[in-house]
Automatic annotation (TrEMBL):
Keyword Transport among UniProt keywords: yes
Pfam families: Exo70_C (PF03081), Exo70_N (PF20669)
Role played: Component of the exocyst complex.
Family of the protein in this entry: Belongs to the EXO70 family.
Domain Exocyst complex subunit Exo70 C-terminal: 218-586
Name the UniProt record assigns to this protein: Exocyst subunit Exo70 family protein
PANTHER family: EXOCYST COMPLEX PROTEIN EXO70 (PTHR12542), EXOCYST SUBUNIT EXO70 FAMILY PROTEIN (PTHR12542:SF7)
Lineage: Eukaryota, Viridiplantae, Streptophyta, Embryophyta, Tracheophyta
Keywords: Exocytosis, Protein transport, Transport
GO annotation, cellular component aspect: exocyst
Span list, region Disordered: 82-118
C-alpha cells in the first residue's frame, strides 16, 4: 500500500477529532467501513514516520496527540462492544462432566451415619485455538485448562493494530490502563455470576461455619472455572493483542486485569486456612486442600511470569496452611475425644453419642486417606509413658510398625475412645448395665470398622480381633454379673435334709428357693427389658446365650422338685412360670421398652 502524503494524513486525523467535530463524536471508526479504519491507521503510520524527521512541526505533534486520543477511545469501544458474554454456568457444567474423580468426596457432618453421594467438580479438558490467525501467542494450554475466545478474532486484530501504534507513540501506560479497566470490569461481572463475593479475610472469619460450608463448595467450583477458564482466557487474550508489541506488555495488561480478582479469590481460602480450628471443619478444609492441590499446576502455568509471582506464592502458602490446619485439627480432635467430659449415663446402656460421632468421623477420615497420608507424616505420641499423665491410655507402637502414621492415628483415636467409654461406664450404678454399655459401644466400633473396606484396611484385622474380643468379654461379664446370682437359686445345695433323697427335701427351703428365683427373674425382666441393644443380631445372640444357660437349668430344677411343691398347698404361689413363660420373657430383654411388672404367662 502506498504511503499517504503528510498533509492528507493530517486531514484524516483532524476529520476524526472528536473534540472538534460532532459527527466524529457520534461515530466510531472501527465500527464502520473497514476501508475507513485501514485508512485511519495508514494516516497514523504516516504521522508517526514524520515524527522521526529532524524538523517536526507543531501541527504534526498536535496530530499525533489527537490520533492517540482517538485510538484510545476506539480501543475502549472495541473492548466494551465486542466482549463475548461469559457464561460460568456452562463452564461449570462442562467441568463437572469432564473432571476425573478426585481423591475424596464431600461428606456430611459426622453426626450422620450415612455418607453423601460423591459430589465431584470436574477438570476442564479442552485445548484452545488462537482467536486471530495473524497472532501467535506464546501460551500453551495444559490438559485441564479450557480457554475460550473472550473477543472475536476480527476485533482482536483491530485491538492489536491500535495497541501497536499507541505503544510505538509512547502511550503504553494509557493503553494498559484502558485495557485493564475494561477487562477487569468484565472479570468482576463473571465473579458475580460465579457467586464470588467481595469478602475480606475478617468478613470470612466472622461468618458462621454453616454459612461457610456452602460458600466453600461454591468457591471450589468457582476457583476451577476462574483459574482454568476465566484467567487462562484473559491471559490468552492479552497475548493475542500484545505479544511482541513491547517488552512484557502482555503480562502487564494481564496482571492489570486479574491481579485484584485473583487476590480476592484466594483471600477466601486464606481466611479458611487461618481460621479457628474445630473438628467439623476438617473435611471442608481437606476439600479446599484437594481442590487447590489440583489447581496448583494450572496456577503455575497461568501465573508463570515474574510479575505474577505473588499470586503463585500466595496459593502455595495457602495450600501449606491448609495442610497444617488439617494436622492441627486431627490432633485437637484426638485430645477432645480423650477429654470429652459428659458424665450422665445414657439410658439403657445404649450407644453413646460420642461413639457414633467419633466412628462416623474417622470413617470420613478414611475417605480422605490419600490426602491425609501425604499430610500426616508422624505417628502419635501415645500413653502415660510419653506424657507422664496417667489419664492417657498406653498404646504399644511397636505393634504397628507396618502401619502408616495416619493408620496409627485412627487406631489411637479408637483406643482413647474406649478409654473414655470405660470411664463413662463407671457412672452406672448397676454393674450389669455398665458391662452392657461397654459391649454395645465396642460392638458398634467393630461394626463401623467392618462396614468400611477402607477403614478395615487401615485399622487392620489384628486390632479388629482385639476389639471383637473386648465386646465379647463385656458380654460375658454382663452375663456373670446378672445371671450367676439368678442361676444360684436353681442349685440343689441347701435343699436336702439328712435322710433319704425322696424324703430329705426341705419343702420350706424349696419354697423359699422358688420365691427367690421368681423375685430375681421378675426384677431382671422388669429392669433389663428397658435396657437397649440397638443391633438386632447382637441382641438376639445375647438372648440365645441367656436362654442356653437359663432354660435348661430351670427345666432341670423344675423337673426334680415340681412334685414337692405341687403336693403341698398353693403350689401356684411358688411355681409361677413354665419353661415356655421364661422363653417368652427372655424375648422382652433389651428392647428398650418398659414391660408390665408381672411376666406374661401362657396359662393365663
Amino acid at each position: 500500500m502506498e504511503s499517504l502524503p503528510l498533509d492528507t494524513a493530517e486531514k484524516i486525523i483532524l476529520r476524526w477529532d472528536s473534540t472538534a467535530s460532532e459527527d466524529a463524536r457520534d461515530k466510531m471508526i472501527f465500527s464502520g467501513d473497514r476501508d475507513e479504519a485501514d485508512l485511519y491507521l495508514q494516516a497514523v503510520d504516516e504521522i508517526q514516520r514524520s515524527l522521526s524527521s529532524v524538523s517536526v512541526s507543531e501541527k504534526v505533534n498536535s496530530a499525533i496527540q489527537i490520533a492517540m486520543a482517538r485510538l484510545e477511545d476506539e480501543f475502549r469501544n472495541i473492548l466494551i462492544s465486542h466482549t463475548n458474554p461469559f457464561d460460568p454456568t456452562t463452564e461449570d457444567e462442562a467441568s463437572q462432566t469432564l473432571d476425573p474423580p478426585s481423591s475424596s468426596s464431600s461428606p456430611k457432618h459426622p453426626d450422620n451415619d450415612e455418607n453423601d453421594e460423591v459430589s465431584q467438580t470436574s477438570l476442564l479438558r479442552f485445548n484452545s485455538d488462537g482467536a486471530a490467525s495473524s497472532v501467535t501467542g506464546s501460551y500453551r494450554s495444559t490438559s485441564s485448562i479450557r480457554e475460550i475466545d473472550l473477543i472475536p478474532c476480527d476485533a482482536v486484530y483491530d485491538l492489536r493494530c491500535i495497541a501497536e501504534r499507541m505503544v510505538s507513540s509512547g502511550y503504553l501506560r494509557e493503553c494498559i490502563q484502558v485495557y485493564g479497566s475494561v477487562r477487569k470490569s468484565s472479570v468482576d461481572a463473571s465473579f458475580r455470576k460465579l457467586g464470588i463475593e467481595k469478602l475480606s479475610i475478617g468478613d470470612v472469619q466472622r461468618l458462621q461455619w454453616e454459612q461457610l460450608e456452602n460458600k466453600i463448595r461454591r468457591w471450589i467450583r468457582a476457583a476451577k472455572v476462574c483459574v482454568r477458564t476465566l484467567f487462562a482466557s484473559e491471559k490468552k487474550l492479552c497475548e493475542q493483542i500484545f505479544d511482541g508489541v513491547g517488552t512484557s506488555i502482555d503480562d502487564a495488561c494481564f496482571m492489570e486485569t486479574v491481579k485484584g480478582p485473583a487476590i480476592q479469590l484466594f483471600n477466601f481460602a486464606e481466611a479458611i486456612s487461618i481460621s479457628r480450628r474445630s473438628p467439623e471443619k476438617l473435611f471442608k478444609i481437606l476439600d479446599l486442600h484437594d481442590a487447590l492441590t489440583e489447581l496448583m499446576p494450572d496456577i503455575d502455568v497461568v501465573f508463570d511470569s515474574k510479575s505474577s509471582e505473588s499470586i503463585r506464592v500466595q496459593a502455595a502458602e495457602i495450600l501449606s496452611r491448609l495442610g497444617e490446619a488439617a494436622r492441627g485439627i486431627l490432633s485437637e480432635f484426638e485430645n477432645a475425644v480423650l477429654k470429652e467430659p459428659s458424665r450422665v449415663p445414657v439410658p439403657g446402656g445404649t450407644i453413646h453419642p460420642l461413639t457414633r460421632y467419633v466412628m462416623n468421623y474417622i470413617s470420613l477420615i478414611s475417605d480422605y486417606k490419600v490426602t491425609l497420608n501425604e499430610l500426616i507424616v508422624s505417628k502419635p505420641s501415645t500413653g502415660s509413658r510419653y506424657s507422664g499423665d496417667p489419664g492417657i491410655p498406653d498404646l504399644d507402637l511397636t505393634e504397628f510398625e507396618e502401619k502408616t502414621p495416619l493408620d496409627v492415628h485412627l487406631i489411637w483415636i479408637i483406643v482413647i475412645l474406649q478409654f473414655n467409654l470405660d470411664g463413662k461406664s463407671k457412672h452406672y450404678k448397676d454393674a450389669s448395665l455398665a458391662h452392657l454399655f461397654v459391649m454395645n459401644n465396642v460392638h458398634y466400633i467393630v461394626q463401623k470398622v467392618r462396614g468400611s473396606p477402607e477403614l478395615r484396611e487401615m485399622i487392620g484385622d489384628d486390632y479388629l480381633k482385639k476389639l471383637t474380643g473386648k465386646f465379647r468379654q463385656a458380654a460375658t461379664s454382663y452375663q456373670r454379673a446378672t445371671w450367676v446370682r439368678v442361676l444360684y437359686c436353681l442349685r440343689d445345695e441347701g435343699l436336702h435334709v439328712s435322710g433319704g433323697f425322696s424324703s430329705g427335701v426341705s419343702r420350706n427351703a424349696l419354697r423359699e428357693r422358688f420365691k427367690a428365683f421368681n423375685a430375681m427373674f421378675e426384677e431382671v425382666h422388669r429392669t433389663q427389658a428397658v435396657w437397649l441393644i440397638p443391633d438386632s443380631q447382637l441382641r438376639e445372640e445375647l438372648r440365645i446365650s441367656i436362654s442356653e444357660k437359663l432354660i435348661p437349668a430351670y427345666r432341670s430344677f423344675l423337673g426334680r422338685f415340681r412334685g414337692h411343691i405341687e403336693s403341698g398347698r398353693h403350689p401356684e404361689n411358688y411355681i409361677k412360670y413354665t419353661v415356655e413363660d421364661l422363653e417368652d420373657a427372655v424375648l422382652d430383654f433389651f428392647e428398650g421398652i418398659a414391660v408390665s411388672q408381672h411376666l406374661r404367662r401362657r396359662s393365663e
